[in-house]
Write a structure and sequence with these properties.
Layout lengths: L4 E2 L20 H17 L2 E6 L4 H9 L3 E3 L1 H10 L4 E5 L2 H10 L4 E3 L8 H4 L3 H10 L3 E6 L4 H4 L4 E3 L4 H10 L3 E5 L2 H11 L3 E3 L12 H10 L3 E5 L5 H4 L4 E2 L2 H10 L4 E5 L5 H7 L4 E4 L17 H10 L8 H21 L1
Parallel strand pairs: 1-9, 2-3, 2-4, 4-5, 6-7, 6-8, 8-9, 10-11, 10-12, 12-13
Helix pairs in contact: 1-14, 3-4, 8-9
The structure holds iron/sulfur cluster.
The site of iron/sulfur cluster has 13 residues, from helix 5.
């Protein structure tokens, strides 16, 4: 089996800000905000698309108002299939950009333009493009968590749910792969596929904060619990998992597995959907050394900010047409691959 190699590049550091103080609202205030957003969505011919890591009330409202709660790929796909002319994307910036790339004719608004992702920050196009040029014998595969400019230099874009299948497909053709930006997901895919992979040294500050030693102790204290781990975590944490998978795979496991308890190594926002689908089960966060596993950027999305952007039209996502046209190619390649694999 070929081993993975870490690309010899110096990436920018990225510090996650403190998790924002959650707005304190009464049930009546939440209901009033939701009603206001429903009115604005109708008025603006808009639909709300939220990620699993956003606050519970936002996820509920997205579903109640005919929008969707999903992972990044399904968020973009939903936007393509929905007739609304405005998409309100509650997530982080690359999700808004991907929605815009796939829905060029639609207006895409985001509740907070400062909501970024450490993987995206770790992989600036100014460093990535020349690195790809210097390794032109490699097929460039990038994870969804990248800017439009980085996607525009890629041959393929993948999400965590389809990454392994795409890499296996490329490896079967004897291709060498330049993978970015997440070294941990890339390392997991490499171990599973045996592919020849050069890994960009980026990472998720949230998923790498889960602590393997503390998780071992927690497992011992909860012998009936199944451990669900996202492959953006370190290999020591992945090695302790009963199930390793994307957010969608983890939700499916929480629903289907018979265990009464689950220890979950991903952002705790996912518990909203897990509790909705399996209300009789208990979900515990895996121990984390930073901010209890919360992604501060995802938590910048609030009902209040959704009201503001719908009222003002602020925070519209724009992607230069030539970048969008080029970035659409690796995304479409993945969508076509996924359609063939069904
Ligand atoms: S949880 Fe990690 S990968 Fe997801 S948006 Fe936050 S920093 Fe990025």
């Amino acid at each position: 089996m070929t081993t993975a190699q870490l690309a010899p590049v110096q990436i920018p550091s990225c510090q996650m800000p403190p998790v924002p103080v959650f707005p304190q609202r009464t049930a009546e205030e939440t209901a009033r905000l939701k009603e206001r957003i429903r009115d604005l969505l109708r008025q603006e011919n808009a639909v709300l698309v939220a990620h699993y890591y956003t606050e519970a009330a936002l996820q509920e409202l997205a579903e109640e108002s005919g929008g969707c709660v999903a992972d990044s790929l399904e968020m973009a796909r939903f936007g393509m299939s929905h007739p609304a002319s405005t998409l309100v994307v509650a997530g982080v910036r690359f999700m808004g950009e991907t929605s815009k790339i796939l829905n060029n004719e639609k207006r895409v608004l985001m509740p907070d333009p400062a909501a970024t992702c450490s993987m995206d920050e770790h992989c600036p196009a100014e460093l990535f493009v020349p690195f790809c040029d210097a390794h032109s014998d490699h097929t460039v595969v990038v994870y969804a968590n990248t800017s439009a400019a980085v996607k525009a230099r890629a041959d393929w874009m993948v999400t965590s749910g389809i990454a392994l299948a795409v890499v296996q497909h490329l490896a079967a053709q004897g291709k060498k792969i330049l993978w970015a930006p997440d070294q941990h997901l890339g390392g997991y895919v490499q171990r599973e596929s045996g592919a020849d992979m050069l890994l960009w040294p980026g990472s998720c500050v949230v998923h790498t904060s889960f602590d393997a030693e503390a998780l071992k102790r927690m497992k011992a204290e909860h012998p009936e619990a199944a451990v669900l781990v996202h492959p953006e975590s370190s290999k020591e944490v992945v090695a302790l998992a009963d199930v390793v998978g994307s957010t969608t795979a983890m939700i499916r496991a929480a629903e289907k597995m018979p265990n009464p308890e689950f220890i979950v190594a991903t952002e705790p926002g996912i518990f909203s959907k897990m509790r909705q689908l399996a209300p009789e089960k208990r979900f515990l966060s895996a121990p984390s050394v930073e901010q209890d596993g919360f992604c501060a950027w995802m938590k910048m999305n609030t009902l209040e900010k959704v009201v503001t952007v719908l009222e003002s039209g602020a925070n519209e996502i724009r992607v230069a047409p030539e970048v969008a046209a080029r970035a659409r190619i690796p995304i479409q390649r993945m969508l076509d691959f996924a359609a063939r694999a069904r």
